Every structure is written in structure tokens, then in C-alpha cells.
Amino acid sequence: MSALVKVDERAGLAAPQDQQQYLTFMLGGETFAIGILAIKEIIEYGNLTEVPMMPDYIRGVINLRGSVVPVVDLSTRFGRKSTQLTRRTCIVIIEVASDQETQVVGVVVDAVNEVLEIAQDQIEPPPAFGAKIRTDFIRGMGKVDGKFVIILNVGNVLSIDDLALLEQADAQGMGSANEAAAE
């Protein structure tokens, strides 16, 4: 599995304080964004090992340089149909911080667009209604070229409860998934 893009962790540090960089991507025809500082890398979709008895939105695990990384289908997580695989489908590897540790998780997206800088004054609060996903999943609505980009709250999309579920699954038998993913 080769990395398509390696994101420099210092990329967001040079931006002025009132602007932040976001990786934008497509999911079901809509544009979403995640803060660039949470992104580790972007890889091709493939080499997934399915793990039995996981929630529908967990596609499986991948072997990322010897580490088992769970892969979440964001479309399914948002209550939509499963992501249809195309040649542009990728896995975005992100770090989700909890109270005491950081969990590395892959998320399946239709296609990666670009890195954008969005000024703080161009970010509106999440809508109270009308969004097709839970409002606690949305950090804000970024205005870019007259259109809205949905900025995700990664900590809520991949909540502490979900991370605990992943850790519990790891402790209860993902040893066989570790072996399968390492092959």
C-alpha cells in the first residue's frame, strides 16, 4: 500500500492565527473538510481485512507499517449508503486525540480535493436543522467561493465511545486480524 500524499505536520503552523488549513474531500456529492493537523496521510483504498461483529460503519482494518488501523466508512457513519468504491476512493489516515492517548483511524472518502485555508470569520456555526448528518459531527460551515464546506468535528464523528469499542475489539480478538493484516 503506497502513500498518495504525506502531509507535513508543520503545514498548519505557518498560517496566520485567524486562518486554518483543511483537507477537503468528497463524500456522496458533498464537500467536507478536516483540519490538516489531524491528518497523517492519504493512501489508496485496498488491502482491507474485515473483522467480524463490528458495527456497519467499520469497514475493517489495514496494516499501516506494522500497525493495525481500523477503517471507518464515513458515509455509513453518517447514516447513508456505504461508499461506492471507485479508482478515486481513498483512505485518509487521521489521529483522534482522547483524554490520555491518540488513536490512529482511517476514514474512507470518495475523493480527496485539496488543502484550503479558511479564515475564522468565514466559518459559521453548525446549522440547528436541515443538515443530513448529526449536528454534533459538524464543527462549522466554512464559506469558500460562495459555497459551504462542512467542517467535521473528528472527535465527535469518531467519539470516545467508538474508540473504546475499537480498543475493546482489539483486546478481545483482533489478534487474528493483526496476523491477517500483517500478511
Walk me through what this model shows.
The protein has one domain (3-182): OB fold (Dihydrolipoamide Acetyltransferase, E2P), CATH 2.40.50. 33% of the residues are buried. Strands 1-4-7-8-6-5 form a 6-stranded mixed β-sheet. Strands 9-2-3-12-11-10 form a 6-stranded mixed β-sheet. Helices cover 15% and strands 43% of the residues. β11 (138-144) and β12 (147-152) form a beta hairpin. The chain has helices at residues 74-77, 154-157, 160-171, 175-182, and strands at residues 3-6, 19-27, 30-35, 39-44, 58-64, 67-73, 90-97, 102-109, 111-119, 123-124, 138-144, 147-152. The protein has 183 residues and is α+β, with helices and mostly antiparallel strands.
In short:
With 183 residues, the chain is an alpha+beta fold. Helix content is 15%, strand content 43%. A six-stranded mixed beta sheet has the order 1-4-7-8-6-5.
- Determine the strand fraction and express it as a percent band: 35-45%
Main sheet characteristics? 6 strands, mixed
Mean pLDDT comes to 79
CATH fold label: OB fold (Dihydrolipoamide Acetyltransferase, E2P)
Strand order of the largest sheet: 1-4-7-8-6-5
Number of domains: 1
Helix-and-strand structural type: alpha+beta
Give me the count of strands: 12
Shape: globular
Q: Span between N and C termini? A: 12 Å
Order of helices and strands: EEEEEEHEEEEEEHHH
Report the uncertain regions.
Answer: 8-16, 174-183
Rg over C-alpha atoms, rounded to the nearest angstrom: 16 Å
Helix content: 10-25%
CATH class label: Mainly Beta
Give the oligomer, counting copies of the same chain as homo and different chains as hetero. Answer: single chain
Tally of contiguous helical segments: 4
State the CATH architecture.
Beta Barrel
